[in-house]
Amino acid sequence: MSNSNHSYKAKKATFYGAGVGPGDPLLLTIKTHQLIQTADVISYLASTDGHSQARDIARHSLASRTSDAEEVVVTMPMSTDRSQANCAYDAAAQQLQKHLQAGKSVVFLCEGDPLFFGSFSYLLQRLSDDFSCQVVPGIASVNAASAALQQPLTLLQESFAVVSGRHTDQQIENTLQQHDSVVIMKAGLARPRILALLRKTGRWADGHYLEYIGRDNQRLVANLDELEDQTGPYFSLFVILRGERPA
Ligand SMILES: C[S@@+](CC[C@H](N)C(=O)[O-])C[C@H]1O[C@@H](n2cnc3c(N)ncnc32)[C@H](O)[C@@H]1O
Is this model's pTM higher than 0.90 or not? Predict the structure, then answer.
């Protein structure tokens, strides 16, 4: 809990999901920063090559700790096979459970917001029955995308929907037809399909493509004619906005 001097300390035997924002370390909240300073254990996902986007975003906060934290790396294979992911989450929950049972505070860092397509959600499912849990929201990639574009996501009566490249063609097509503003997450492998669907639904001119928002290698393509019709990085998304917006 916060106290009068606005400092926030990780509580013992508590499991925290803490958002670190979309990429710019300055978009990590003060609350998450203070949790990182005070937690006994810091955990995060990493790819099989050892890289962790969440840890990288939080690197300044980790470096400014007065003592080293114990770090629990949860290696996640890049696969659409949920059974592999579930095995990794089961093993991670068991490992984190031991720390919580020993009375330690555990902070799981999550890129963006922890409960928006966030890996923390799957650990929360596994640990919330037995342990005290808290969530610290983070700035999600959709918000960072609209800020980078300097375009509102929604205005007045405009409808807004979020889908992902893992949805079927039919689901994406229906969404593009039914909603004014659409964000398509997980666009990496799905980019050629998404481009075809934008053409098919007449939303090509409404589309914007962004990758690595807030990172040094951020790329923003406002005219889809300039985007290669090929797969791209995992950290990419499309924002589709009507050409004519309500006044
Ligand atoms: C597992 S979801 C995590 C979403 C995250 N929790 C959030 O709040 O934005 C991963 C997807 O989010 C999107 N994403 C997250 N960060 C991004 C960034 N910095 N730039 C572009 N896309 C990003 C991509 O579509 C990526 O495939």
Answer: yes
